[in-house]
Amino acid sequence: MGLTIRNVSKKYANGVQALNNVTLDIPPGMYGLLGPNGAGKSTLMRTLATLQEPDGGQIFLGDIDVVSQKEAVRQTLGYLPQEFGVYPKASAEELLDYFAVLKGITNRALRKATTEALLKQTNLWDKRKQKLGGFSGGMKQRFGVAVALLGNPRLLIVDEPTAGLDPAERVRFLNLLSELGENSVVILSTHIVEDVSELCTNMAIINRGQILLEAQPLEAVASL
Ligand code: ADP
Ligand code: ADP
């Protein structure tokens, strides 16, 4: 159940061609989208997250048309934007519970079990009573992953997640991503080569809105 992107283009009103005929086949597992600042990564991520529409092209998640069936995609989408803002006065436990309600997990017992599992998975269980305003950048990003994973999304989009993290937090965050299920599509957008080479099974390089290369970094390394 992968993601198919065909000839997707996007030109902004200021004339910038942010995506130029992008075609990609993204299988389940960890997929890295690598490129420098301004390459078009966020534009592609926001397009996949149904936050903006392409000028042309097709995007399919399995048999869901991502461009025209927005509601269906959103039901099975987890999106961690570049800077995940949190309400600082809520505790991790409270805010995750709140997002779970918004996701439609209305059964209290199920919600309790779901949020407990996610707080443990993201290594925040011991911190669950603390206010989010006091969280470090890495803790906020891990909390963002917990929110993004509510409802077991088939597509998880993670946009430049390690940008503001110190080295120790970065490793902890990447380890967390690497443990996510092989059944869903996880797309990690980054300008850091190591983010991709360390944990993605497939990758593409994007520059000036165009795909320059598709590769399998782990296999490439293993075959050396
Ligand atoms: P990134 O780090 O992904 O390149 P930016 O910091 O460039 O993101 O952009 C931050 C926000 O500003 C985004 O929401 C983006 O859509 C918007 N933005 C970026 N470049 C422009 C631009 N040239 N004109 C208008 N909005 C822009
Ligand atoms: P990346 O995430 O790889 O840094 P972006 O997708 O943010 O790249 O940006 C790609 C190009 O599109 C850049 O030149 C950026 O300035 C421009 N851009 C991004 N968002 C907007 C926007 N909302 N309006 C106009 N230009 C934008």
UniProtKB/TrEMBL annotation:
Coiled coil: none annotated. One of its GO terms (molecular function) is ATP binding. Transmembrane segments: none annotated. Residues 3-224 form the ABC transporter domain. Keywords: ATP-binding, Nucleotide-binding, Transport. Belongs to the ABC transporter superfamily. This is ABC transporter ATP-binding protein. It comes from Hymenobacter qilianensis. The chain holds residues 1 to 224 of 304 of the full protein.
